[in-house]
Design brief:
The protein is an alpha/beta fold. It contains 12 helices and 9 strands. The chain folds into 2 domains: 212 residues, Rossmann fold; 71 residues, no CATH class. 36% of the residues are buried.
């Protein structure tokens, strides 16, 4: 037990003398202070089980792979996916360079931030907005654009930075797993190059462990300089059945644990559930309408319908956000 919780243990040696007068006090710190209830107990029990050398469920560190969805699992996703807000902001910035957009019902809706109208255009409309807002620049230029936006933009409801709309309990979970030799990956339907510039600073997950949807890039030479330029063409959608496909391509192992919040994560959890030996699957169920949002089966954002039923059948852990999390977000900056 002490070995498992070692990163969370403070050892205070209070020495008042020598020999018989010596005293040692050990204080154990809770590794998941924002968690409570059955979901917390299930996490602790699983980690202890797979890290107990000699135990029946022991898993070597090399196979301790944990995959996390991002939107709705590591940070909020309401009232609309944050990357779409980023795309709208980009379209507004570029609007003066494209007067023809005013006569385009889709693009003019994006300039206004009219989510309902944009949604009516379906996936084709979203891809057009992504092409207009995410392509044409080099990968280095795009990284700079994302970095500036994530440092300055504010959530339309809370007024917080988007990086402060992350879930404190999940930050604790990421740290707890890494302290027990898990390798943590993001596997998200969001854009891979949208997440990579800030994921390590916020989640402790380095760029090479971030997977997401992507557009194509091409090698470009200009004199003695070489760049990768982003193209207005889809490369890979890392959602639903695309998630286990991406995991296979880029990780090469089935996860030991998988965490999601929507039907878009279902195949990732099923893929993890099918591994030989122990595994862990967890859904974050958004049940807290006061501190966050309450939504599941009928939501157009982060809908959780089929996944709820399968989780009940399979015995996967479903976090009741309202009751299982003592707090939602970390403290906001000034």
């Amino acid at each position: 037990m002490l070995r498992i919780l070692f990163p969370y243990i403070f050892i205070l040696l209070l020495v008042s003398g020598c020999g018989e007068n010596s005293a040692t006090t050990i204080e154990t710190v809770d590794p998941l202070p924002s968690w409570q209830g059955d979901s917390r107990d299930a996490l602790i029990e699983f980690v202890e089980s797979v890290t107990n050398e000699g135990g029946a469920n022991y898993v070597p560190p090399a196979d301790r792979i944990a995959t996390f969805d991002n939107d709705g699992t590591l940070w909020a996703e309401q009232p609309v996916y944050f990357q779409l807000i980023f795309a709208f902001d980009r379209v507004k910035q570029l609007a003066d360079q494209h007067p023809e957009w005013q006569g385009d019902s889709l693009m003019s809706a994006a300039i206004r931030g009219d989510v309902k109208t944009v949604s009516g255009f379906g996936m084709g409309g979203l891809l057009k907005i992504v092409a207009a807002s995410h392509a044409g620049m080099t990968t280095t230029e795009f990284e700079g654009i994302v970095t500036e936006w994530i440092e300055t933009a504010r959530h339309p409801v809370s007024g917080r930075k988007y990086t402060e709309m992350v879930y404190q309990p999940m930050l604790e979970l990421l740290a707890y797993l890494r302290a027990n030799d898990f390798k943590t990956f993001i596997v998200s339907g969001g854009g891979i190059e949208f997440m990579r510039p800030w994921a390590e600073a916020v989640y402790g997950i380095p760029p090479e462990q971030v997977m997401g949807s992507s557009i194509k890039v091409e090698w470009e030479e200009s004199g003695d300089s070489f760049v990768l330029r982003r193209l207005p063409e889809l490369n890979f959608i890392d959602d639903k059945e695309g998630k286990p496909v991406g995991i296979h391509y880029f990780i090469g192992k089935r996860p030991l644990a998988a965490f999601g919040n929507s039907d878009g994560d279902l195949q990732m959890l099923q893929w993890t559930d099918g591994r030989e030996g122990p595994s862990f699957q967890m859904y974050i169920h958004h049940t807290d309408a006061e501190r966050e949002w309450a939504y599941d089966r009928d939501s157009h954002i982060g809908g959780l319908d089929k996944g709820l039923d399968i989780a009940a059948e399979k015995g996967w852990v479903v976090v009741d956000m309202k009751n299982d999390w003592k707090t939602i977000y970390p403290p906001a900056s000034e």
